[in-house]
Structure formats: structure tokens, C-alpha cells
């Protein structure tokens, strides 16, 4: 609720302040830049031609931008500089009351410009609309880039590490363990792995091997040695 009240108050303040600036800027346009520069020169403002052009453009265009809520903070900064110059060179030494040439009006407009510079123009503005559009577009682009980075058929894992896969039992696959794994059987028992025949302890032949070689050479059946217990 407080946010809504701020947005409505900011809208009203922006429109009222913008109308005042547009009125003063349009008055300078109608008088002409030459006449405005001459008036600035008589008031003792330095560089009157440049100051007249700056004040005319900033008050007219800046006032319109304030009403629309477009580029509120940059415009508010330019308007604040304009009001500070008016107070410093013209109205600061003439008291407060505007009827006596004091800084009453320029001070109020400068304070409003400072407020817009600090807080912005609220959500009821073109700045808020364009900002929301740009944020949605940026979020969509970031999501598309993330999907493109993983590529088709690849999705981010729960652990956040790309390139690892998990089996149905929840154990890490070869990409995660770094070595080969054997599939688990349905009964939960470890499958038997066939053993390789052991190499002989030495390069020498035993007695059984010699008898088999003799049998092959003499074409006689080999005679196996009986166990000592028989």
C-alpha cells in the first residue's frame, strides 16, 4: 500500500513540476533566445547566450520528460543545475519571497528536482514500463543462452556438475568415479568375475609336463602320477 501511495504521489509531483518547467521554458521560446540572453546579461549571468539556450531547452524538454516519466533522474539532474544557477546568480541575494525576486520558486523547483534525482519517478512512468520490458527480455535471453550452453539432450544435474550421470541406484557413473563399474544384479549380490589362470611361478617345467611331452613324442598315452595316498 505504501508503494502505491508513493507511486501516485510521485506521478502528481512529476506532472505538476513538469508543467511549471514547460511554462517557463515555453515563455523563453516565445521571447526568443536573443531577448532571453539579453535579459540574462542584464541580470549579471555569465555567458548569457549559452545560459539562455541551456535554460530554454532544459526547462521545455525536461518538463515534458518529467510529465511522461522518461529519463527522470538525468532530467532531474539537469533541472537541478539550472535552478542552482538561478539561485546563485539571480535570486539568492534577494530574499525568499518571489514577489521581491527571491528564491522561493527556484528553491522549491530545485528541491523537487533533487527528490526526483534521488528516488526516481515511481512505477507510473515510462521509465518503469521500459525497464520491465528490458528486464523480461534480458531474463529470456539468459534462459535461452543457458539452454543453448547445455545443448540438446543435456540437462543440468542436481549437483550442478555438467558431464556426470547417475544410475538408477543413485551411484555415480563412470564420468563421476573416473573408473569402470560393474552393473549390479537384481538380487543385490555381487556378480562373479571369471578369474584369469595364474602364471607359473617360474619358467621351469615340472614332472607332469615332461611326461606329457614324452608321450607326445613317443605316441604313447601319458601315464599320470598316482597320488601318494592310493
From TrEMBL:
It is a multi-pass membrane protein. The keyword Nucleotide-binding does not apply. Residues 205-214, 221-230 have a biased composition (Basic and acidic residues). Residues 151-191 have a biased composition (Low complexity). Belongs to the DoxX family. The keyword DNA repair does not apply. Pfam families: DoxX (PF07681). Keywords: Cell membrane, Membrane, Transmembrane, Transmembrane helix. Its main location: membrane. This is Oxidoreductase. It comes from the Bacteria. It is found in: Cell membrane. InterPro entries: DoxX, DoxX-like_oxidoreductase. The chain crosses the membrane at residues 50-68, 75-93, 105-126. Residues 146-230 are annotated as: Disordered. One of its GO terms (cellular component) is plasma membrane.
Amino acid at each position: 500500500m505504501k508503494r502505491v501511495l508513493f507511486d501516485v504521489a510521485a506521478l502528481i509531483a512529476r506532472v505538476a513540476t513538469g508543467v511549471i518547467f514547460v511554462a517557463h521554458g515555453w515563455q523563453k521560446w516565445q521571447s526568443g533566445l536573443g531577448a532571453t540572453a539579453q535579459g540574462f546579461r542584464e541580470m549579471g549571468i555569465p555567458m548569457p547566450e549559452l545560459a539562455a539556450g541551456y535554460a530554454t531547452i532544459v526547462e521545455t524538454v525536461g518538463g515534458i520528460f518529467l510529465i511522461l516519466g522518461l529519463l527522470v533522474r538525468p532530467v532531474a539532474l539537469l533541472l537541478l543545475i539550472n535552478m542552482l544557477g538561478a539561485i546563485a546568480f539571480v535570486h539568492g541575494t534577494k530574499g525568499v519571497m518571489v514577489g521581491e525576486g527571491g528564491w522561493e520558486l527556484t528553491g522549491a523547483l530545485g528541491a523537487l528536482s533533487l527528490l526526483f534525482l534521488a528516488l526516481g519517478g515511481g512505477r507510473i512512468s515510462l521509465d518503469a514500463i521500459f525497464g520491465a520490458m528490458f528486464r523480461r527480455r534480458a531474463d529470456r535471453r539468459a534462459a535461452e543462452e543457458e539452454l543453448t550452453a547445455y545443448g540438446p539432450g543435456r540437462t543440468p544435474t542436481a549437483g550442478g556438475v555438467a558431464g556426470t550421470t547417475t544410475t538408477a541406484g543413485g551411484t555415480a557413473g563412470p564420468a563421476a568415479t573416473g573408473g569402470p563399474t560393474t552393473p549390479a544384479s537384481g538380487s543385490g549380490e555381487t556378480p562373479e568375475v571369471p578369474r584369469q589362470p595364474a602364471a607359473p611361478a617360474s619358467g621351469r617345467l615340472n614332472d607332469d609336463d615332461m611326461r606329457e611331452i614324452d608321450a607326445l613324442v613317443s605316441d604313447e598315452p601319458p601315464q599320470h602320477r598316482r597320488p601318494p595316498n592310493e
